[in-house]
Design goal:
- With 295 residues, this protein is α/β, with parallel strands linked by helices.
- The protein has 3 domains: 4-84, Arc Repressor Mutant, subunit A (Orthogonal Bundle); 92-159 and 260-294, D-Maltodextrin-Binding Protein, domain 2; 163-258, Periplasmic binding protein-like II (D-Maltodextrin-Binding Protein, domain 2, 3-Layer(aba) Sandwich).
- It has helices at residues 4-16, 19-26, 30-44, 60-88, 103-116, 169-175, 200-208, 221-229, 239-242, 274-287, and strands at 49-52, 55-58, 92-98, 120-126, 140-144, 153-161, 163-168, 190-192, 216-218, 235-238, 248-252, 260-267, 293-294.
- The longest helix has 29 residues, at 60-88.
- 26% of the residues are buried.
């Protein structure tokens, strides 16, 4: 059927028996009710009602329609009840999208979220593209860099990730350790593949070294970490991650201009739901104790 409004109108007429009663329930003018009935009968090519002074009586076709429409209305009512229930309880699927490289911080939060709400199914998605919250691709997004500006999103600051420049002990044994950026000549570096990387520390590095010193490039953050471990070059890592690695040497300590601000982004339609509020509240609480991060 092309127009469910007409079917809903016919259902109310069949249920109540009068045009005026249906109009009152639907909140429309009685002329709209008559127009819907006439259009539906014309489309179906049959009479749905017998008109008389007391009102409208369904024909056999009308009674068939009433049966189907009543079942459909009940199913929609049940669906609405389930949807409302999902909105009031923390259960079902929860989708978090994030910039890559934060799983060491986010997974413990998600694990605690599931311990508190066992009926939740967690999906953590990372990708180079930005997920569309207005399309329902995620409940919450963690984004880095400048504050997102989409008009229908609620944006809250989370924390600033501090970045330093590191090399493995293997690299230092082979190439030595530069004492400052003035000693970068002759050294090799690990960097993001894209020259348009939005990370402030990568832009800084490209300004400080020649292009042929950027000897290992990748779009995958995990590859930067692996390259540092293999001793192929010097590269940036979050200070919290580097602090857990005994195989790394700090080449340059974190600087404020290298910080990467993180933002919690939610869509206005989901922001106040219990599920989203429960996760965001827990995330903020846990982030206060994250090591090597600036508030």
């Amino acid at each position: 059927m092309e127009n469910w409004d007409e079917i809903r109108t016919a259902f109310q007429v069949a249920r109540l028996g009068t045009v005026s009663g249906a109009a009152e329930v639907l909140g429309v003018h009685h002329a709209t009710v008559i127009r819907h009935i006439d259009a539906l009968e014309k489309r179906l090519g049959t009479r749905l009602f017998q008109r008389h002074t007391r009102g409208y009586t369904p024909t056999e076709a009308g009674r068939d329609l009433l049966t189907v429409a009543q079942t459909t209305e009940e199913q929609f009512a049940q669906l609405a009840s389930r949807i409302k229930g999902h909105g009031e309880t923390v259960q079902g699927e929860f989708i978090l999208t994030s910039v890559a490289g934060l799983s060491g911080l986010l997974v413990p939060v998600l694990a605690e979220f599931q311990r508190q709400h066992p009926a939740v199914i967690v999906r953590l998605l990372t990708d180079m593209r930005i997920f569309r919250l207005d399309y329902g691709e995620a409940h919450v997004a963690i984004r880095a860099g400048a504050a997102p500006e989409e008009p229908d999103n609620v944006v809250q600051p989370l924390i600033r990730i501090r970045y330093g420049l590191y090399a493995s002990k293997k690299y230092i044994e082979t190439y030595g350790k530069p004492e400052s950026e003035h000693d970068f000549a002759g050294h090799r570096f690990v960097i993001a593949e894209s020259e348009g990387s939005r990370a402030a520390f990568f832009r800084w590095l490209r300004d400080k070294v020649s292009n042929d010193q950027l000897t290992f490039r990748s779009t995958e953050p995990a590859a930067w970490d692996a390259a540092l471990e293999e001793g192929v070059g010097i590269g940036f890592l979050p200070a919290w991650e580097a602090s857990t690695r005994s195989d790394l040497v700090e080449v340059l300590a974190p600087r404020p201009e290298w910080d990467s601000p993180l933002w919690i982004v939610t869509h206005v339609d989901l922001h106040r739901t219990r599920k989203v509020q429960a996760f965001v509240g827990l995330l903020k609480e846990k982030a206060r104790s994250w090591p090597q991060c600036a508030g």
